[in-house]
Write a structure and sequence with these properties.
heterodimer; A: alpha/beta; TIM Barrel; 8-stranded parallel barrel; two-stranded antiparallel ribbon; 16 helices; globular; B: alpha/beta; 5-stranded parallel beta sheet; 9 helices
């Protein structure tokens, strides 16, 4: 299976290529993914063990239609009920699950849908995650925006009417250090009402600093909660340390952030187990930090530059819909974000059932908002992380959501 | 009935239906206000914290009293900051305190609510605190300078009705401020029941936002609240008094 992820660039030196092949083919030469690296803060937490052991012991095939029917009759679902909803036995119940999910979504969020856009400010990366377009061995145009360029991008996005922004970087502490990201967030506060980040995991003090810079929401994708699989996919770099990444959301809350988001990248491993772990991660965090605003994302694998073969494997749209309905019914109060990895048709449909937030006016490249928003020619940008599947502008998305009978909300947040 | 007004913060209202403005289309707010006959409408300050593009405040009719709420506040300090911001935004002096440090049930934090009420009342706000129906807290809120007390009927958005019925009744009986039943009222009959109990007003949002026909539901609530109020004023009939009435008097055996 790995072979479909491995791509050798002809720009790599012989030594680099040899090193790449060695870590790909020889597990013995790879580091222990459970061992923390120097400088990575360890916190006391029992959430890791609870989530990972639940995911490991989950047997999706063990559930029956009766279990699913029983779960759907309950007002408050247990983790056991949730496991039934994620199982293959729930597939024939998809329409019923969607109906229940829709009721829960409307009850908790009303007739609204939140809109946001991501802004990638750098794509340098020191990790080798074999499925990611930013991985350090992938031959792409690298770029790190200067503060002036960041501000220009923000102006272009703000002019489109967007009020919520998610700032992203590749995972390079040397190219995109915390101060660099913090300065970008301070700029973002000038142009946007709400600022979130999706960057490499950091320590509590760094999250506290970023919160002071104006950030209140932290998204970290665990990619997969299956340690064995994680080890095979994240071959090099800080990201290889599995528990440090897992505890990132908790450190963010300890650093004063208001909200967090969790997810697996669906298609990397057994998606039912990963979906279970993602939701339990949120569930246990909310129990421990009841004030935290929690949300789930649901990205599926997409093709990347130099590798068009990457795909979401066995996670089709029906499976994705099942997962999202199960999330909503189990965690009715949690936000659910659906990104532009999904198609226009899917996103129009899922906002009527379970999603509460969607992106618009999206670019996953670096410094190309002006050309994308205005059509102005510019070839100096950095390459994208993955191919998007829904390129609708904010205006188009706004009117499409109104056509779906929903009230688009650009901001419902105050920095206090 | 004409003289039966609700008095809060030096103002008099004829309607006893406080309308929420969240969770539904901005374009429906005007119709909701009209059909509800509402004179007070709530609005989250955080929702109004937006640029020109479809600001919710622009959709709220000018002839109603705006009741900004502090949702998003996790403690008294944050609620105070949000209330002050509301005043700066031109939302007036009325403020509904909402302090939650629970993202699952959105239950109010009574202790922090008392603290915020005290600070804001001293700053001249007309403070209407959302609270869990606890008599001791309600008394503290009175002493802190609240203008009304807003106990929850059941968890916000749950449409479950008067789950806290008996405790709300205690507040109605013991507290000399308007008791406004807030949160969880899912249908007009529940609003009617709250009014029969002697609530001064009812606040509702989700029940309307999730109704099939919002203006029609607003109108139904209006009528139910008026009916409940009239029933309360008339005094409930003896059939509703607890226990049976024996045909022979229990004290008939007594001699002079």
């Amino acid at each position: 299976m790995e072979n479909e992820y491995y791509v050798d660039s002809d720009k790599l030196s012989e030594a680099a290529l040899a090193r790449k092949h060695q870590i790909e083919n020889d597990p013995e030469c790879r580091t222990d993914p459970m061992a923390y690296l120097p400088g990575q803060e360890q916190i006391e937490s029992d959430i890791f063990d609870k989530v990972i052991s639940a995911a490991e012991s989950y047997q999706p095939e063990a559930y029956t239609g009766r279990d699913v029917a029983r779960a759907l009759q309950k007002e408050h679902l247990t983790a056991e009920d949730f496991k039934a909803l994620l199982s293959p036995a729930a597939e024939p119940f998809l329409e019923q699950m969607a109906e229940r999910a829709r009721i829960e979504t409307r009850r908790h969020f009303g007739n609204t849908v939140y809109l946001f856009t991501p802004l990638y400010i750098a794509n340098y990366c020191e990790n080798y995650c074999v499925y990611c377009g930013f991985n350090c061995y992938n031959d792409i145009r690298r770029m790190r925006l200067t503060p002036e360029q960041i501000e220009h991008e923000m102006q272009v996005i703000a002019e489109s009417g967007m009020e919520e922004i998610l700032i992203l970087t590749g995972e390079s502490r040397t190219q995109s250090d915390i101060q660099y990201i913090g300065e970008a967030c301070k700029l973002a506060r000038k142009y946007f009402r709400m600022v979130g980040i999706e960057i490499y995991p950091v320590n509590v003090a760094d999250y506290r600093y970023l919160h002071e810079c104006g950030v209140d929401y932290v998204t970290v994708f665990q990619e997969t909660y299956d340690l064995k699989r994680y080890e095979q996919l994240h071959l090099l770099g800080h990201k290889r340390v599995f528990p440090y990444r897992f505890n990132a959301q908790e450190r963010a809350l300890m650093g004063g952030m208001r909200g967090i988001a969790c997810s697996a990248l669906l298609g990397l491993s057994d998606f039912r187990r990963d979906a279970l772990a993602s939701a339990l991660h949120v569930y246990y965090l909310q129990r421990k930090y009841p004030h935290a605003e929690v949300s789930l994302s649901c990205p599926r694998l997409r093709p990347i530059i130099n590798n068009g073969r990457i795909n979401p494997q066995d996670v089709g749209e029906r499976q994705l819909c099942q997962i999202l309905c199960a999330y909503r019914i189990f965690l009715p109060f949690a936000g659910i974000t659906v990104s532009s990895r999904e198609s226009e048709t899917f996103r129009n449909g899922i906002v009527r059932i379970a999603a509460t937030k969607i992106s618009a006016g999206v670019s996953t490249g670096i410094g190309d908002h002006e050309s994308k928003y205005t059509g102005k020619e510019d070839s100096s940008g950095g390459d994208e992380q993955f191919e998007i599947n829904d390129g609708r502008s904010l205006d188009k998305m706004y009117s499409d959501m109104e056509s779906e009978g929903l009230q688009p909300v650009l901001n419902d947040y105050l920095y206090v | 009935m004409e003289n039966d007004t609700l008095k809060i913060g030096g103002r008099e209202f004829h309607s006893r239906f406080i309308l929420g403005s969240g969770k539904y289309s901005l374009s429906l707010i005007q119709a909701a206000v009209e059909h509800a006959g509402a004179e007070i409408i709530t609005c989250a300050v955080r929702r109004a914290n937006t640029k020109e593009h479809e600001n919710i405040l622009d959709f709220i009719p000018k002839n109603v009293t705006l009741l900004p709420n502090t949702s998003g506040a996790r403690n008294a300090q944050e609620a105070v900051r949000i209330a002050r911001l509301a005043r700066e935004l031109g939302c007036g002096d009325f403020v509904k305190i909402e302090i939650m440090r629970d993202s699952k049930y959105l239950l109010p934090d009574n202790q922090e609510t008392v603290k915020a009420t005290e600070i804001l009342a001293k700053e001249g706000f007309v403070v209407m605190p959302y609270m869990y129906p606890d008599l001791n807290t309600a008394r503290d809120l009175v002493n802190a300078g609240a203008a009304a007390v807003m106990p929850l009927a059941s968890p916000i958005g749950s449409n479950k009705g008067l789950a806290t019925r008996d405790f709300i009744q205690i507040l109605i009986d013991e507290i000399d401020l308007p008791i406004i039943v807030d949160a969880g009222i899912g249908r007009p009959s529940q609003a009617c029941e709250a009014m029969e109990m002697g609530a001064a007003a009812v606040m509702s949002n989700t029940a309307l936002a999730t109704a099939g026909d919002l203006p029609l539901m607003a109108s139904a609530f209006k009528k139910a609240i008026e009916a409940g109020r009239q029933a309360y004023l008339s005094g409930l009939g003896r059939v509703l008094v607890r226990g049976a009435s024996p045909s022979d008097t229990l004290t008939g055996f007594l001699r002079d």
